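re: ur msg from earlier - yeah i can do the S-adenosylmethionine complex, just paste it... oh wait u already did. ok heres what im feeding in:
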Amino acid sequence: MTLDFANNGTITDPKPKPRKRGAKGPRYRFYCQPSEKMRQCPDSSVALTVTSPPYWNAIDYDIHARSGDDVWHREREYTAFGDTFEDYLVNIATVFSEVKRVTLDGGFCAIVIGTILHKKRHYPAPMLITQRMLDIGWEFHQDIVWNKVTGGVKRAGVFIQKPRSGYYYPNIMTEYILVFRKPGEPRRGREKALEIDQLFTRDIANNVWHIAPVPPKTINHPCPFPEELARRLIVLYSDAGDEILDPFLGSGQTAVAALKNGRRCVGYDIEAEYIDLARERVKRPPPPRQFNLIPRFEKVEIN
Ligand SMILES: C[S@@+](CC[C@H](N)C(=O)[O-])C[C@H]1O[C@@H](n2cnc3c(N)ncnc32)[C@H](O)[C@@H]1O
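and the outut:
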């Protein structure tokens, strides 16, 4: 176990009260501290978690938060969430055990995570995290593939140069949205969650979602997920009034989507700059995207 944090954390709401499902509470509360221990959250209080954990050593949040520009990208090895990949998985299990403690029986936890490329090795993080989640007592509920459509890691050039066996490294266009459930009575809402429109039947109804990433330089964080992704998870897996948790809050996309949809939000991050950013963004929420993507297929002849 290698979590080691000097930061004691700044608490935005010093006296949180235990709350029951549907009870009133602050619309949002953000804490600058590691989420391995979320003492401000009572047992069985959160309906849903929507989060994307740190990507092991892929992104140096510490450098990014202090510089606020593009120098974050692989300037230095990011090891705060685990020196080795095994340490990383241990730390993930620690945080998601704590998430399980604070989750209502039958409540959900959605983790957005992609495979990790590091020093010419490819780490199957989503698969191994799934195993850890089962080990700590979560039930596997659903896997959704997030197809980024317009973004991703470009690698196919290798095969274009050498179109031979053994040179196939496809572009990585996806991340997984892994949905887990805490054992207990299923939680089912009474209100209509979503319109059954074209967006639903052509995209949301399937377990491959087509959502463009956040355009570069629009949010001052290295890896925000799209608000639309958080919105879908929030309306599909929680009800109005519920408290939604993001233990790795970042720019606050989960909080923005939660508040816009009548939920409350509790968030944690170790970088004070990101807590400030998230607070600013919930105070002045960004306008909704004007368009969503739906897939269309065409036939091509086989050569
Ligand atoms: C992948 S980013 C989350 C991005 C977020 N989903 C968004 O849309 O902006 C992971 C975040 O976890 C934070 N973090 C890293 N270690 C942490 C820890 N132990 N506890 C809480 N937050 C942590 C990082 O500062 C970073 O902002």
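cool cool. The radius of gyration is 19 Å. ping me if u need the other ligands too
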